[in-house]
Amino acid sequence: MVRDDKIKNKAIYVYAKSTQMADEWKSLAKKAGLSISKFIVEHVENSLKSTDNNVTSRLDLITENSKLNEQLTELEKRLRRQDSLIDKLEEDLRQTRASTFLQKTDRGIKEYERKLVDLLREPGPHSDNEILRQLGIKQNEIEAIKAVSAQLENLQAYGAITRTNKGWTWVK
């Protein structure tokens, strides 16, 4: 009788959510070579040990996740503002460079668009539309388009590029 009381004091009854879950646990225990009792004890012990080693609670994780989402939203807004400013500055830069090439009186040294020269040096012909697209010039930026055209004409007059039916090519 003493033995029965000792066993009863140590016994814990666990009810699985479904018979399918119970069958799955039994199958996993059998594969591990353990009784179902030892299998459950081992997993509970492992779970308890993991909580002792700086495992964050669910509530803390939810709070942290919420704060991180707010931070992400703010950073995304900031990035959109910065992208907008960069676009505006690039457009201003193109207009400034364009004005250099559009002034007919300026015969001094002109600074060519580096991207344009690098693009033209790539093998094969390059169409006007491809050049504008690669330089990030929109169809409504008339002054920038005129400046690119002026640069292309200057490079052609200098003998650095030639125009073919398929587009502009760099002269080797």
Question: How does this structure look, described?
Answer:
The chain is mainly α. The chain has two domains: 2-55; 89-170, Arc Repressor Mutant, subunit A, CATH 1.10.10. The protein is 69% helix and 5% strand. The protein has helices at 2-10, 19-32, 36-52, 58-102, 114-121, 128-135, 142-158; strands spanning 161-164, 167-170. A two-stranded antiparallel ribbon has the order 1-2. α2 (19-32) packs across α3 (36-52) and α4 packs across α7 (142-158).
Q: Which structural class matches the secondary elements?
A: mainly alpha
Low-confidence stretches: none
The profile of the biggest β sheet is: 2 strands, antiparallel
Using only C-alpha atoms, the radius of gyration works out to: 36 Å
